[in-house]
Amino acid sequence: MWSPIIGLLLLLLPLAPSSASYIKYPLEGNVYPTGRFVVRMNIGEPLQPYDLDIDTGSNVTWLECQHPVYGSHGSPGVKRFYKPGPANLRVYCKDPFCASLRADLPGRRPRCPRKDPHECHYKIEYVDMTTEGVLVNDTISLSEGRNEVIVFGCGYDQRLKNPSPTQPPAADGLLGLGMGKVGFVAQLKAHGVITKDVIGHCLGGSRKRGGYLFIGDYDKLPSTGMTWAPLKKYGLHYSPGQATLHLDGQQIYANGMNVVFDSGATYTYVPTQIYKPLVAKLKAILGNALDPVRHHALPNCWMRRGTVEPFDDVNRPSGILTLRFDNNIVMTLLPKNYLIPVENNIACLGILNGSDVGQNHRIIIGDATMQDMLVVYDNEQGRIGWASEQCTGSATTSRL
Ligand SMILES: *[C@@H]1O[C@H](CO)[C@@H](O)[C@H](O)[C@H]1NC(C)=O
Ligand SMILES: *[C@@H]1O[C@H](CO)[C@@H](O)[C@H](O)[C@H]1NC(C)=O
Ligand SMILES: *[C@@H]1O[C@H](CO)[C@@H](O)[C@H](O)[C@H]1NC(C)=O
Questions:
Q1: Which of 120, 160, 188, 327 is the most exposed place for a label (fewest CB within 10 A)?
Q2: Predicted TM-score (pTM) of this structure
């Protein structure tokens, strides 16, 4: 009676779940003074390390680049430029990648120029800068011993909209984690490196540095404590939809606003209709524990009285912000999600006036607010999730 049992076992084996495929990278950085979180990637032949700003608000990955013909106008403070060779520059305008990149760009889709059919030119405008470049094709090392050729941008002209002398030096480029076929994660999925287009980041809070980023089918999501909302594409960004904002239960502004999650933004931005009453109410609440001071870092700062952490009293919680989405989905923000320590006893408000940067109609949740939180962008199931977590870095791990 052995053989039928063995036959049954052999039939069952292929049905056992396959192990998850994902890559987890350590992040370096902080909200203040660096203003960004970067992941180190080895790119090119021979491989060179580049620190890329992780940006869920951008579809395209690009490097600060020295182009053989167009030269380079880099962002301030860039130390390392990528230098493509002739073979890397052969991503043609009629290439499907170029077509989908251009389809993703807002505004009128430019035609392929007759003069330069052999290059894919793009220009992208972000909240605080513009970048201009051409697509290239080169090797990227994903984890130990695993290299892939992917398409990304050679950004040869970056311009800041409001350059400031206290600007920290720029990263070596940007890791585009937004949606779209040209996205880093979408390409890895198309190459069969990972099976799922899922991204997650955990940005370390102010007393730590770093955190981690994962891409793919990460099998260590907390089984409880994640809040999930349906992913609503809002223009170019990941969004859980519209929400109203409340401070200690009190609604700040009558109308709901679209909320987008953008790891490329250092701070959180709310339109002036929300900003003005929010700052007034926060000043009243924080004034009970902190003294207002002026500091060059940000517009609204306070100094701690004494040595006690003023907001750690769990019995009398105050200064709690909540974003309330449809279907009773709530995002809770503690003072550590909006107060940024800039010196020993001084913390500043990490929420800024969006109207100052042309953002009048939406709330942008930036790094300041996503600290010590695991945020997951699940493009497979069309959902976005978050959970409170102590974020610390670790070595690159991969299960592929
Ligand atoms: C990129 O390079 C690889 C390997 O040389 C090649 O197979 C692929 O077609 C190229 N992709 C594009 C979009 O040029
Ligand atoms: C990113 O790609 C998506 C899907 O193709 C598109 O809707 C969106 O406009 C693109 N965003 C940017 C910034 O190009
Ligand atoms: C927010 O920015 C807008 C545009 O610059 C400005 O008109 C408004 O006064 C600002 N609001 C506050 C409260 O600073």
A1: 327
A2: 0.90
Q: Could you read off the pLDDT of 248-259 as tens digits, one per residue? A: 999 999 999 999
The reply to whether omega before 163 is within 30° of 0 (cis) is no
Q: Do the domains at 9-218 and 227-388 have one common CATH topology? A: yes
Domain edges within the chain: 9-218, 227-388
Cα–Cα distance, 383 to 362 (Å, whole number):
19
Class of domain 9-218: mainly beta
97 lines ligand 1 (CB under 6 A): yes
Which ligand places an atom closest to the C-alpha of 60? 2
Q: Is 55 helix (H, G, I), strand (E, B) or coil?
A: strand
Average pLDDT, the chain: 88
Q: With a 6 A CB cut-off, is 272 part of the ligand 3 pocket?
A: yes
Determine contact, residues 343/161, Cβ cutoff 8 Å: no
Distance 339 CA to ligand 2 centre (A): 31
CA-to-CA dists, residue 26 to 109, 135, 367, angstroms: 37, 27, 16
Give the integer Cα–Cα distance in Å for 64 and 154. Answer: 7
Residue nearest to atom 13 of ligand 3 (CA): 276
Q: What's domain 227-388's superfamily in CATH?
A: Acid Proteases (2.40.70.10)
Any atom of ligand 3 within 6 Å of the Cβ of 353: yes
Per-residue pLDDT tens for 143-167? 877 899 999 999 999 999 888 877 8
Residue 151 beta carbon below 6 angstroms from any ligand 1 atom: yes
Query: pLDDT digits over 329-343, tens only?
Result: 999 999 999 999 999
Which ligand 2 atom is nearest residue 57's CA?
13
Mutate to test the pocket of ligand 3, among 276, 281, 356 (most ligand atoms within 8 A of CB): 356
What is the structure's pLDDT at 15? 46
